[in-house]
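Our example pasted here:


***
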Amino acid sequence: MYIVISLIIIIALLYGLLLVGYLIWRSKFGKPADNYIPILAYHKVDKKFEIGGTWTTPGQFQKQMAYIKAKGITPVTLSRAVELMKSKESRNKKYVCITFDDAYEGLYNYAWPVLQKYGFPATIFVVTDYVGKENDWDVNWGGRKFRHLGWQQIINMSKAGIEFGSHTRSHRDLRRGDDEDLKYELAGSRIILEERLGKKIKTLSFPFGRYNHRVITAAVEFGYETACSLSPQQRNNQINFMALRRSGIYITDSMWDYQNKIFQEGRWYWLQDLWSRIVNLCAGGTIVVQNILNTSHEKK
């Protein structure tokens, strides 16, 4: 009898938490605009285990791309997604935008062959000061390091149709920088990419998804036409092309989770959106450690 009562109480608490979460999400964020193209945000696609959740196994990635193909969904680059949303051509048509933050080498080894297999375009955001180097900027709680793509790999992928954008030069929280810092991070990274690739760089992904009005103003000034965040400040039905909303893809995602991130008109999309925002909030731990390290260096 006590076990039955305990189960009833636990179930009631879970339903209560779900209801509270939904009401918070609905009041603060709400449903997406009907012409919004889902933008998926991957980080690592790799066989190497890490404690952080922002990675995907090659097997998961293959299954996810196969799902997109089977459902007749059309992948587009971020630049093309913006064109479709601005023209309203995306309304009632099924597109998806596949993006990758940080430009890790695992993308070349595991993700790109799958994208080539299905003929899918994608957009990759590069941390230019770390090209070909390990991710020393990141606070990986397991202590594991991952290498970023090298320039020749980036050039090869670019020639094959992969779109590249900026993820700044050093992956720092842009809100803390002064005007010179913003110029270094935003203008500097764009110039480096354009010189290396011989193409105009129009897209930007804010490190940690963090930005403010000053950061957006600087991004526009330094030539960017669109930018992304994992936790934009506006409601979901408001499309800000300098703070586009993305759905993070994680190691914990089941295919049910993945489907709800693509079909955002579904009844359970709210749970995916809220979870993605919570995970992105936790990424602030790296910002805190970076700030502590920068402060200690300044004192020396």
